[in-house]
Amino acid sequence: MEQSNYKVQLRSMGVREFDEVFTKFNHLIHRLRHEEKLRKDLVSDTSHELNTPLTTMIGQLTAMQEGKYPLTEERVAILKEQAERLAELVQQLDAYTKARMPDTGEPEDIHLRQFCEELMNHFSLELKQKGITAKLHIAEDSIIHANRGALQQILTNLMQNTLRYSQATEVTTEATAHKLLFSDNGKGVPSESLPYLFERFYRVDTSRSRATGGLGLGLAIVREVAESQGWAITAVAGHPGLMFVLKINA
């Protein structure tokens, strides 16, 4: 382990006390190996995400500087689009860093139905463009005591995740005692991916297509924010689709 060799495994000795320690050691090795893979993927994926727009921008600017390309509105639009892509990447990384810092805001009583209606209204145009119907199963008098900013960030990221990846036609938000259920009827994810959805830089689609892969930070931010509040969030397979279960005051 000191030499970063995460392939070693301790074999059972047939002595219960030792075997219990060996099992925990092997589990730790597995986790470290997984974390190391995520770290290497981060370097590779971030380099790729940065390199693609930068290469386009430098190529366009160099050609215009040398007089090979005229300065047109179309070319300016291309440069602006690539600059915005870089800005989004930096914002995602910054958002993840901030999510790891505890939110010191005070909890307050939140009228949950009104809160969720305002959130849905914020995404109304995107939902319409995607052909997704938003449904709320929350009582009018439902109130939770929670950090408003943290709850808003979690639900916003879950909605963005649904809009980008789910291919759903419906998204439903439901409240029970101390739990908030956020589900869709989309394509879902493979069962083997469920334990890793909240891992840093994990992507269900391992291709580097920005439209389907992304950096894999959105749900990692959700978990960090939830845990900073002492909450817990899990993902379970829907029939069809995917459901996120947020347990408040876990």
Would you mind describing this structure in some detail?
With 250 residues, the protein is of the alpha+beta class. Strand 4 and strand 5 form a beta hairpin. It has 6 helices and 7 strands, in the order H-H-E-H-H-E-E-H-E-E-H-E-E. Mean pLDDT is 85; it is low at 208-213.
How do you describe this structure in short?
The chain is built from six helices and seven strands; from the N terminus they run ααβααββαββαββ.
Question: What key phrases describe this protein's structure?
Answer:
flat, 250 residues, 5-stranded mixed beta sheet, 6 helices, alpha+beta, two-stranded antiparallel ribbon
Helix content: 40-55%
Low-confidence stretches: 208-213
Order of helices and strands: HHEHHEEHEEHEE
Give the overall average pLDDT.
Answer: 85
The value of Rg in angstroms is 22 Å
How far apart the termini lie comes to 34 Å
Instruction: State the assembly state of the protein chains.
Output: single chain
Computed structural class: alpha+beta
Main sheet: which strands, in order across? 2-4-5-7-6
Number of strands: 7
Strand content: 15-25%
Largest sheet: 5 strands, mixed
